[in-house]
Amino acid sequence: MLSAFPGPAAFHGYLVAYETPFQTTASRCHADSGAILGAKLGRTRPSYAAKLLPKTTFGVLISMVLYKKTNVTAKNGINFVRSAVEGAGSLFHKIETENDLGIDALIELIRDEKPLSRQVAIQVKSGSSYYNPSGEECLIPIESHRDYWLNHPLPVLGVVFVPALGVAHWVNIKNYLKANPSETVIRFRTSNANRFDQAAFAKIFVPTVLREVPDLTLPEASALFESEKPDESYLGLIVLFRRYPNNLDFWSRLIQHITDRAPSEIPPVTVYFLAHIPWHGDIAYFGEQITEATKAHVRSKLAGFSREHVVKLLGFIDEEGGISRGAIGQSVEAIISSLPNASTFLKDIALDKSLEPFIRECAALILAMNEGAAAIPIIERLEGVRSWYATELVEHIKQYGGINPYA
After folding, report:
1. Which of 30, 147, 171, 241 is the most exposed, fewest CB within 10 Å of its CB?
2. What is the model's pTM?
3. Domain chopping of the chain, boundaries
4. What SS3 state is found at 20?
5. In this structure, are residues 103 and 95 in contact, taking their beta carbons and an 8 Å threshold?
6. Beta strand 137-141 with 91-94: parallel, antiparallel or unpaired?
7. Cα separations (Å) of 207 from 118, 194, 269?
8. Which residues are paired to 292 by β-bridges?
9. Is the CB of residue 346 less than 8 Å from the CB of residue 367?
10. Could you tell me which CATH class the domain 69-209 is placed in?
11. Cα diameter, the chain
12. What is the per-residue pLDDT across 81-115, written as a single tens digit (0 to 9) for each?
C-alpha cells in the first residue's frame, strides 16, 4: 500500500537494506533495488524484513558509486591539452589510467598536415594544488617516477593546467631532473615562454622540441625581450637574433641591456651574440647573415662603452674557462679588443687595486694579446701585488714575444 511507503523525510538518514541468507550488504540490495521499491509500493512482499541503517538514504542506494571532483579536474586538464594539440593539427594519444606509469599521453607532431616522425611523452597535472599563485609557480610531484622519466626513450614533458585561470604551462621534465637530481618536486615559473595553448603549441612548443627557432613575429619577440621575466626575455633574445639579425632596433636594445641591467639579469649568450659584430674564429653562425650596414651601426654603439662597461664585460669571464677557445671569455675579449679605447681601459683596470684580482688579470691578458711586449710594464706592476699569473704571463711574453690563448 502507498501508506506503507516512507515519505521523503525518511530518506535523509537511512538506507533500506534487505538481508539474505548469502549477503547482508547495501551493495547486494543495490542490485535488487527495483524489487525493493516494488515491495514498498505493495506490489510484492519481500521474504526478509527490512532493516534501517543510519547515515544514508534510499536515494543513495540507487546511485552508490561516487565520481570524485578530482576526477573531473584531471579530465579537464587532459581535455585542455588535447584541444590545444589537436587544434594545432597534431595528434593526441591518451594513455588510459590503468596503463598510466607516469605518462598520460603521447603527442605525435604534425606540421602542415605532414607527420614529422617525432613524438613526445607528457605528464598532465590539473588543479589548484599544482599551482602556487604567490610565486606564479607550477608544481609536479616526482614521487616514484624519476627513473622512469629519465630513462624513457622519448622526450618527457610536464604540463600543468590551472582551471581557475584557464591556462596551462609546460616544462621539460628530463632536463629538470638532470639539473636538479635531489629535488622531490618539479617547480617552474610560469611565463609566456612556457605557456601551453593552441597558438603557443604551434609557435613555440613544436619548434622547441624540434630544436628550431620559435616562429614569433618581430613585435612578439620584441615584447618578450623587454620582459622582466628571465624566460620570456631569453626567448625574445633568441628569436630576435636568429630571425631578425639586421633589425637595428634590436641591436640598440641588446646593447642597452648590457649597459643598464645588472649582470645577473643578462644571460651570457647575450655577450656571445654581441661578439658576432667584431667576430672571432670559433663562432658558428647560421641563418640570415648580418650585413655590413648592421655591423657598422652596432660598432658605433659600442664606441660609447665606458671603463665601467668594460669591467662589467670582464665579469662574465668565469675562472674555470678563462679566456680560451669556446669559453665566454673568448667573446668578451673579442668585444673589448674592438673598442677604440680598449688599451686605455685595460691598463687602468689592470692597475685598479679596488677590483678583484681575477678581473685585473683578465684585463692584463687581453692587453698582452693586443700589445705583446709593450704590455710588460703594466703586467709587472700587477706582478708586484703577488699575482703568480702575472709572473708567468711576463715570462711567456719575454720568451715568445706575445701570447695567444687560442693557439
Report:
1. 147
2. 0.79
3. 2-62, 69-209, 218-400
4. coil
5. yes
6. unpaired
7. 12, 12, 19
8. none
9. yes
10. alpha beta
11. 118
12. 999 999 999 999 999 876 668 999 999 999 999 99
